[in-house]
Amino acid sequence: MSTRRRPVKQPFIIVPLYIYPAATAWDPLFLAVCSHPSLDFLIIINPANGPGACSTPDDNYIAALERLSLLPNTKIIGYVYCSYGERPSTEVVQDIETYHTWEIQGPSLRVDGIFFDEAPVSSEHVSYMSDMTSVARRTRLSASEQNSLVPAIIIYNPGVFADQAFYHSADYIVVFENRLEAWNSSYVRQNMETLPPELLARSVAIAHSAEDLGVQLRFGEHATLHVGLAGHFATAVSDYTEWCCNWGDYVRWADELLHKMA
Prior knowledge:
Blueprint: E1 12-17, H1 27-35, E2 41-45, H2 59-69, E3 74-81, H3 89-103, E4 113-117, H4 126-141, E5 153-157, E6 172-179, H5 186-194, H6 197-200, E7 203-208, H7 213-226, E8 231-234, H8 247-261
Helix pairs in contact: 3-4, 7-8
Protein name: Spherulation-specific family 4
Keywords: Membrane, Transmembrane, Transmembrane helix
InterPro entries: Spherulin4
């Protein structure tokens, strides 16, 4: 029987999960998700700079995604890069449709949306992104009766502030992806001030290379409690191919913050 999945609860943690699911590699994620059922996790999967050339992921990915799909506080988001609007639309569509083929094989391989990385920022590319978003939404609607009950989640990641017209087609936009120390720059502060509250509530910040846990927590608190962003992620490592030693503490803090804001 079909069941309607719950909408995304804010603030959520967005997880760039670029770690191959060998053996116990995803266990820190499963532990965090299961230990904090009231906290939502938007999890970006990236098997091969996108879904890869095959119509299905390999056995390790299938096993990990089947397990992840059973957890109600997760949204699984497929990675697709756009080369800042220069990637041929046919290639972008092919990646979207590959994720779609995963879904039509059954709910155990659900993909709840698309994370458009290297998204453009200038208004000349608004139509390009709108067209790609329409494809992503249409393919999800046709995936299965169960999944069509929930619209695709669309995230653009320019990593910086983009023309506000992009919010017409995206659900969320990553307005900051950088070393955490850059969060306090005048560029970020001034651009945050240009976004109205309703767009801040659809914006996300991702920070890497944090000095320590205290810096990570101050970032998360400022981004969500003071600025009003929808989602956040901070790690002490410089990329997303390994778990931060502070991951568990960061998630516990985020869950506590969520309850304080309720």
